[in-house]
Amino acid sequence: MADHAGRAEPAVRREPGLRSVVGADYETRGVTKAFGDVTVLRDVTVHFYRGEIHSLIGENGAGKSTLVKVLAGMLPADQGELVLDGQRLPALTPRDAQRHGIYLVPQEPRLMPDLSVAENLYLGALPTWRLGTVSWRRMIDTTEELITSVGLRADPRLPAGRLSLAQQQLLECARALSHGCGTIFFDEPTSPLTARDAERLFELMWQMRDQGLTLGFISHRLDEIEAVSDRITVLRDGDVVARAERGTWTRENLVTAMIGRKLTITRRAERTAGPGAVMVDVEDLVSPPEVNGMSLRIRAGEIVGLAGLVGSGRTEFAETMFGIRHPASGTVTVNGRNITGASPRKCIDAGLIYLAEDRGRNGIFADVDIARNATSAIVGRLPKVAGSFVRPWKEQELAQLAALEMDVRASSIAAAMKTLSGGNQQKALLARWMLAKPRVAIFDEPTRGVDIGAKESIYSIIESLVASGLAALVISSELEELVRMCDRVYSVYEGRVTGELAGDAVTLEALGQLAVGA
Amino acid sequence: MTTAKNVTAASPARRELSMPPRWTLLLRRREILVTAVIVIVVAASTAAHPYFWASGNLAFIFADSVVITFLALGESFVMIGRGIDLSVGAIMGLSAIVVGFRIQNDGLPLLPAVLLGAAVGIVLGLGNALLVGVVRLPPIIATLGTLSVYSGLEFVVTNGNQVDTIPSSITNLGSDTVLPGIPVILLLTLPFVLVSAWVLRYTTFGRSVYAVGDDAEAAYRAGIAVQRVLFLTYVISGLFAGLGGVAFLIYTSGASSTTGINDNLTAIAAAIIGGTALTGGVGGALGALVGSVFLTVTLTALSFVHVSDVWQPAGVGVLVLLAVLYDSRSRAGGTRRRAKRQRQGGPR
């Protein structure tokens, strides 16, 4: 307690609001960061200047979010240094960063939902009287002023969980100001916002810039980037590949830099057999708020892709098909059976499987061996003694075969799942789902966090399954992946199908245009 | 992402979002609600059995609730921080035994006895605090472990003896009343409740406990030393349990190797009934007092209508389930809370 009260400085509060805060010159020099053996940032040097909006763009996995997290002290850099107004900073925690005036507004506002707006604003540095007593009245008065200055009008005593997402984001901005932070990074703030709310945020950002704050901005929407940025840095696979100042870029330059001109994009394999019967027929599926009327069809022996921004509702659509979310209306027909709203168990029995996007959270059983991870979707169908007792040897044998087929590389089938690399975990999950003998498979970001070698083998596994009659739906944010694999691609925006490309029309350029909403 | 939700979200920056008037909020407070229920239970019991209203009986009920009040107070700090302390009953028992033997054998006076009880509580609470705040064990596992250790120690310390001769100068505090129906011991407890309420509401530490319990990651981002806050809540829980041990001696004038064995869950129950959420971030010290009194009143009322004592633990369970059910039904913004639960995980 003494520790909190003892920090006297924040207790003497300056006039709240925009005017009392200034930004800093903040740069990274040669920052490198790796997660395990995947390098996400490689020798990145970026300079954020006072009074500018500096945007970071790049495809998913380019390292933008990691970079701002390093800048805000959420992640330590492996190598390189952070330099603030010419001073080298030591290793940062979020708390240190805030003390240096650096703040990160996350994509999803992270507030304490049961606590009041005022407390959310000031926590970490509550206004206090001399004895360390929290002064509620002063807090509420200054809150009113401060949140009004960012365009948020709400009762300071209201629980923050009652605010809309857009309002919570404004509150995050106000919080940065209340902590005296003038160097503010926005990690895709607009992706959960409507166009109107985004516009309001931009107005605030411009106002902040004109007051001399330093702003960093991430977005996937190129039109937004072009509208708000004074300076742009393009990242690709952890490298800085292009820099531009206002007036020196074109849309084409940016897209080319983002996507990169990879000379060898492996073309998708020619399918010998043409597509067969319709295996999936989704009619106008709705599950608010993310899925707002999705219709699509997939035939046997066909790979269909879903392209779209993060937050466009693709994963939510898959989850609704697979019975994890409840559909409000619409129908899902798989292999002639109506499975609308059926539980995952029933979907699996009907021949539909879903390889989830977030492997760590929704896929693997980390501490359990590969064998039981592989058989977990078909426990009911395992060979049994007396109809009820699993035969462990048979189970292992089955898992072993499946793992072999999927090319899982591990010391043994009894190794714990968490000891495997990302690529091998993914292959073990493929083994799990193939044991279920699906007719239709949804692969959600099948190669996320997987190294390049494993990527290719995952592609060929999926292709060989499709060659033998599987109907596959691939959700991917990597356009190359869609071009590489898919016979047809639907583009998805705000939970609706907005376009369709088929055959040779599926190109990087065409998808790139569709995905950025152009 | 265009949805009904977002369409309304588009306009709100212009519309004033306000709170309902203060008095309606006051009525919605759990402490008020439970107090109202207590009054109803008392009235109904008095109608059924006039002796219930006798000052002796009311004093007995209030005095009976004091020990649980202490335990629930400490438990509230921990639970608001989204933790749980399963060992409070055992700490209370150990404190009662250690202090009791000193009083019995060495004639320790009241004030040093209270300080000794507090010290024992703090030391045992430090055990939990280290395991949760420093070693970072999940609280339920850490305190389940210390529960076993501490209740085992009760047998070691008593070594076959028990505390049964506490001088009446001390035990009188448990039976004397100031006004009819108000025992001295209740008045001695009230300052602790009020100070706790003040700490929780008006100190940076207190507000930090709520913040950590509401969303540890967000609190960490806001610059709160999450682990240090958690550490302190377990020390405080130990402190109050230690004081509860002294209250137990005053009230029952004895202690044995099994003292406190049934009180761990009762304390948690009292806190939950008083409005402290198992999911953290919500609750308060007054709730601990009101919850404890409610439990005692209701259980006494049951015995007045000739429900056997053996039903008591089951009765406590039912009351807790009702309270939790009420919580999950009445809390607005249920989806947001669900979201919070999903992305718990705490700071790095």
Helical/strand content category of chain B: mainly alpha
Largest sheet of chain A: 6 strands, mixed
Helix content of chain A: 25-40%
> Count of DSSP E strands of chain B?
2
Q: How many helices of chain A in DSSP terms?
A: 18
Shape of chain B: globular
Distance between the termini of chain B: 31 Å
Description:
The complex is a heterodimer of chains A (about 525) and B (about 350). By secondary structure, chain A is of the alpha/beta class. Helices cover about 35% and strands about 25% of the residues of chain A. In chain A, the strands form five sheets. Chain A has a six-stranded mixed sheet with strand order 6-7-8-3-9-10, sandwiched between helices. Chain A has a six-stranded mixed sheet with strand order 16-19-20-13-21-22, sandwiched between helices. Chain A has a four-stranded antiparallel sheet with strand order 2-1-4-5, covered by helices on one side. In chain A, β11 (about 280-285) and β12 (about 290-300) form a beta hairpin. The longest helix of chain A is centred in the middle third of the chain and has 16 residues, at about 195-210. Chain A is globular, with a radius of gyration of 25 Å. Helices cover about 75% and strands about 0% of the residues of chain B. Chain B is built from 16 helices and two strands. In chain B, strands 1-2 form a two-stranded antiparallel ribbon. In chain B, a hairpin with a 2-residue loop joins β1 and β2. In chain B, α4 (about 55-80) packs across α13 (about 265-275) and α6 (about 110-135) packs antiparallel against α12. Chain B starts with a helix and ends in a 6-residue tail after the last helix. The chains are: A alpha/beta (about 525), B mainly alpha (about 350). Chains A and B meet through α1, α3, α6 and α7 of A and α1, α10, α11 and α16 of B.
